[in-house]
Amino acid sequence: MIGIKEISSGGSVSTVVDPKLVFAVALKTFCNGIILAHNHPSQQLSRSEADLTLIKKLTEAGKLLGIQVLDHLILGKYGYYSFQNEGVM
Question: What is the pTM (predicted TM-score) of this model?
Answer without folding.
Answer: 0.83
